[in-house]
Amino acid sequence: MTRVLVVDDEPQIVRALVINLRARHYEVDAAHTGAQALRLAAERQPDVVVLDLGLPDMDGTEVLAGLRGWTRTPVIVLSARHTSDEKVRALDAGADDYVTKPFGMDELLARLRAAVRRAEPQPPDGLPVVDAGDFTVDLAARRVRRGGADVRLTPTEWHVVEVLVRNSGRLVTQQQLLREVWGPAYRTETHYLRVYLAQVRRKLEPDPSRPRHFLTEPGMGYRFEP
């Protein structure tokens, strides 16, 4: 069973999420503070975290930083903060998705399922290791290495890299990338692409400000060049 950690200090939201998730056969743990969330994440090893940003003891981005120090577990932010700056800040801190309150339960559950799917290991397909010179991408092992060491990518970062590498040398439109990584409901969320491509470039490009491999085609999309 998929285990979900719900982190929120509003009892009615926690109760609604716990009831709905358990009704759909998820295992659920709940935390009401950031410290409790970090402890439960270490103890219970959830498959996905649903995280509120406005916690009583620390900001949710601090929880994100604590999680990203040791795990790639998908994190869906669930917050009343609606501004684009807040969304970008959370995504940049390592969140995989962002849902604003008030929210529709069906949409949240769909996004949770998508996050879990992206994090699931895919069966090997026999594709070769792609050597970009500065780094290598092993599509079968779902691993990126740079300078002889593994590069830690979040599940969403990996999925972005995977889609672009599988289409090496070809333009991947913004809509195609959003659809393949996040799903059809995300076709207008182009700021996700800016945030995640910036993160991928920081981790893999020799000079992220002048990318050689993950290229932007202005107004159209992105292209991977080995």
TrEMBL record:
It is found in: Cytoplasm. Pfam families: Response_reg (PF00072), Trans_reg_C (PF00486). GO terms for biological process: positive regulation of DNA-templated transcription. Residues 127-226 bind DNA. Residues 127-226 form the OmpR/PhoB-type domain. Member of the two-component regulatory system KdpD/KdpE involved in the regulation of the kdp operon. Upon phosphorylation by KdpD, functions as a transcription regulator by direct binding to promoter regions of target genes to positively regulate their expression. InterPro entries: CheY-like_superfamily, OmpR/PhoB-type_DNA-bd, Sig_transdc_resp-reg_receiver, WalR-like, WH-like_DNA-bd_sf. The modification 4-aspartylphosphate is found at residue 52. GO terms for molecular function: cis-regulatory region sequence-specific DNA binding; identical protein binding; phosphorelay response regulator activity. Residues 3-116 form the Response regulatory domain. One of its GO terms (cellular component) is cytosol. Keywords: Cytoplasm, DNA-binding, Phosphoprotein, Transcription, Transcription regulation, Two-component regulatory system. Gene3D superfamilies: 3.40.50.2300, 6.10.250.690, Winged helix-like DNA-binding domain superfamily/Winged helix DNA-binding domain. This is Transcriptional regulatory protein KdpE.
